Structures are given as structure tokens and as C-alpha cells.
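Team,

Forwarding the record for the chain on the shared tracking sheet. I've put the sequence and predicted structure together so nobody has to dig through attachments.
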Amino acid sequence: YRRTHGIDALIRRLHAKGYKLYVLTNANIQFHQYKHTLPGYDCFTDILVSADEVMMKPESCIYRRLGEKFGIDLTESLFVDDRPINIAGGKFCGMDGVLFTDAAALEKELTDFAAKTGNTVFVSDYIYSDAYIYEDLTEEYRRGLAKLDRALAKVCDQVVEVAYGFIKEYK
């Protein structure tokens, strides 16, 4: 991950204020080898890795799994991501979302959100930039998901693809 200026300090300030911070990542299983290098790693309550769950953002099942696994009420959470499609996936499951551009803008968004909601759980994700550069193992994993999707599409009555904000109905 390329470190984003100010993000480590922001994570530490949020943690010091008592917010529960989580990472939801589309990383492959090798993520566990380097997760300790994430800015603010010691401040996160927990981490959900898509490769461990065999699901990926923006699929709604991964956001629901996050809530179930860690006891998070998604409707009382704020999801931060640097990809609009992933924020849309979270919103589909009831989460508010903020598009990450830089640490200063994020801090303002979080402050405004906290002022409106009071009891807040912040769920953070790829706020480290360059995080969706996939390695061979991740590409293999994605191909496996695509194969599974095609098999499921054959037996489903309705098939809808949602990708990068575009919706296409196949049947």
C-alpha cells in the first residue's frame, strides 16, 4: 500500500475517541502476511478479508457478513472507500458511505457524520490508495468467482449484473 498523507494520524485520533474501526478489504489471502504494515493497524477492532470469506465488494453478501461476524448494525455505520461502486454496495445494505479522496476531506466528512448520528461505528476500507492492484492469486480467485456466477446464472430466474455503477439485466 502507498501510504496516504495524514491517514495514520486520523485513524489514531478516531481510535482515541473510542470509535470502533474495521477494515473490509478485497485483498487476497497473502494480506495476512502484511496487514500489520497498514497505517494504524493496532487501532482496528477487526479485519474482514474477502479471500477468507469467498466473496468480494461490491457484492452485498460481504457487507452483510461484516455486520454478522462483528455484530455491527450496518444502518448505524459509515463505510469509507476509494471506489464509488463499493460505496454503492454498502449503501444497498443500509450503510452510509463516503468516497475517500484524502485524509483532511475524510476527517471533515467523519466529523459531520458523527455530529449527525452520535452513536457511530466507522467501517474503513481502502483508504490507503493503490489497494486494488491485484496479484496473480487474487486474479485466480476472481476467475473462480466468475465461473461460479456463470453457473448460478444458468439456474436463476433473474440475472442482473452491477459493475462500476452500471446495471445490466440479462434475464
